[in-house]
């Protein structure tokens, strides 16, 4: 893992910038070092886990001392995960996140630090499904949706005009006609696999945006509110809409060029609805006209 590959000025990393730099300062290898040299300097396997663990915040304190809460999550080297043990069940039962020394798990740790309630909720739902159905060749619809959001999800707070355009996959409306409205929007990348991919950004990279709750409710930066939105019954239906993230204004200088959004391989039109399906009703706030 080479930390110098991370461009902390990237807009999608803004929510993780402070914690990411703090974790790097807590023990990740210096920029430019290869993995072999880094392992020697930091005592071998497990430096990412140790650095993340050093940045887990202490429990909140009251007048009489620490307030009783759920035990803080811990980060442990990947070698602590027993062979054959499901990753999600191990986290649920031990409160420890097995962590490899790579960017994927580094970003997973940053999301845990920023959204501990949401990550715990996702993990509890995964563990419950494993307890019910065991581990098979397929995950099932709920675990598929949980994994999709955990790896590639995003949360958007935005004016209704932007939501209507996004849900219709009206890319010209979303990114050109209503471009100025993005100043009122907040897009937060939750999926750690997507954060890893964006270290080397490419135009086709797409997030799965959660479609739940009010469109501009402030949940993008509210861990508790986000966790509450992740209802298992709704998740089974995969309530996500694709969003090519490098089309977001001010996120990628290339999207200022004429014709950027004409690339139908990236900005794909909505599929024609099948006659046997019924379009799900949207929350009232998403369907009402702008005030």
In short:
The chain has helices spanning 17-25, 35-41, 47-54, 87-94, 103-114, 116-133, 141-152, 160-167, 171-177, 192-197, 223-229, 232-235, 284-287; strands spanning 61-62, 65-66, 74-77, 96-99, 153-157, 186-189, 206-210, 240-244. With 291 residues, it is α/β, with parallel strands linked by helices.
Can you tell me about this structure?
- The protein has 291 residues and is α/β, with parallel strands linked by helices.
- It folds into two domains: 7-57 and 71-114, no CATH class; 150-287, no CATH class.
- Helix content is 38%, strand content 11%.
- The chain has helices at 17-25, 35-41, 47-54, 87-94, 103-114, 116-133, 141-152, 160-167, 171-177, 192-197, 223-229, 232-235, 284-287; strands at 61-62, 65-66, 74-77, 96-99, 153-157, 186-189, 206-210, 240-244.
- The chain has a four-stranded mixed sheet.
- The longest helix has 18 residues, at 116-133.
- It is globular.
- The termini are far apart.
- Mean pLDDT is 86; it is low at 30-36, 38-43 and 275-291.
